[in-house]
Amino acid sequence: MVQENGEIVLDFEEEIATVEDKIAHLEQLSKEEDVDIQKEVKRLKTKLNRLLGEVYQNLTPWQKTQIARHPNRPHAVDFINALIEDFVPLAGDRCFADDKAMIAGIGKFEGISVVVLGQEKGHDLDTRVEHNFGMAKPEGYRKAKRLMDMASRLNMPVLTFVDTAGAYPGIDAEERGQAEAIASSIEQSFSVKTPIIATIIGEGGSGGAIAVATANVVLMLSNAVYSVISPEGCASILWRSSDKVIEATEALKLTAQDLKKFKVIDEIIDEPVGGAHRHPKAVFDNLRAALRKHLTELLALTPAEIKKQRSDKFLEMTRHFKPAPTPAKKKK
User: Which residue from 219, 235, 284, 305 has the least number of CB within 10 angstroms?
Assistant: First the structure.
């Protein structure tokens, strides 16, 4: 569904969108004609707030996945523009090309010089094609590796903004060593002597996400998702049917609340009722406060302590997941 103003509406938001359209229509009418509609607008806004509360406090994993993919949700470039001062983009992997799916550069976060990495999906058709829908190729991960090495040598913390359905699965990416590039980026993450803070701002898909999310602290927006495979891919493999996508989403345990419980992430950044696509500034402010807190704590550590904390974090994560017992063989 699309609203009168062109905004895309998710299927479970249709009643909300209807009320929003009525409010917008009445407010426009009051500008064009001398009509007092304040009482009716106030009533509709009360109804709107009630509907938003009812819907957004009871979201299913699949609904959160839809919100994480919402085209109007703030993307990496929005977070960089809101949080990073004097940002200077840096291009190229020094091997093949510049991958625009991976935004990279240097800037300042509250006066602290930082290296910034972000997976950018794009806002419209042209920018989505330009950024390859946020799916990086090997040169994107090698660019990330290059900048992380630079950050370590120049004693600059690394801030990453993760938002990708996964690494690009095309033949050309495989020919240029996609798996090796992702593995090398993860390996480089463990050798960086400065703090790394990753934020899952939308989708955190598979190895394409973990390549730039191997961090001392992993933050996650409350309506973001983070998983080893997309729900569609999971349904295709396990059930061989796209009709099972909702069951797959629930089985993957990909919500921020599940992942915090499993200690895969460290902190959930609250989104206001209605989601980040309705209230981007509030999300920027919430994330800024969390980044400030964690960066201050990490900068108090020595380089050796920073590297050890990061390694210990991921080693400890593996202890929370025990393999399922092997089924006993039936006696003949």
Answer: 305
> How confident is the model at residue 5, as a pLDDT?
47
Residues 164-172 have a mean pLDDT of: 92
Contact by Cβ (8 Å): 298, 195: yes
For the CA atoms of 176, 179, 182, 186, what is the dihedral angle to 10 degrees? -140
The DSSP code sequence of 158-175 is: EEEEEEES-S--SHHHHH
Contact 176, 96 (CB under 8 A): yes
SS3 109: strand
* Collapsed DSSP state (helix, strand, coil) of residue 94: coil
Element (H, E) at 125: helix 125-130
Query: Which residues are CB-neighbours of 106 under 8 A, at least 6 positions away?
Result: 87, 88, 90, 113, 114, 115, 116, 156
DSSP category for residue 8: B
pLDDT in tens, 88-116: 999 998 989 999 999 999 999 999 999 99
Q: Please state, in angstroms and as integers, the Cα–Cα distance from residue 285 to each residue in 171, 249, 332, following that order.
A: 41, 29, 64
The partner residues of 198 in beta bridges, in order of sequence, read 160, 218
Identify the weakest region by mean pLDDT among 18-22, 30-34, 203-207: 30-34
In the block, residue with structure tokens 């550590």: 301
| pLDDT tens digits, one per residue of 125-162 | 999 999 989 899 999 999 999 999 999 999 999 999 99
Query: Phi then psi for 157, rounded to 5 degrees?
Result: -60, 160
Helix (H, G, I), strand (E, B) or coil at 76: helix
Of the candidates 135, 128, 43, 139, which has an alpha carbon nearest to the alpha carbon of residue 91? 139
Asked whether 196 and 149 are in contact (CB, 8 A), the reply is no
- Residue 30, amino acid: S
- Residue 323 DSSP code: P
Query: φ and ψ at 58, to 5 degrees?
Result: -135, 40
Cα–chain-centroid distance for residue 129? Answer: 19
Gap between the Cα atoms of 166 and 108, Å rounded: 28
Residue 300 sits at the vertex; the CA angle it makes with 299 and 304, to the nearest 5 degrees, is 80
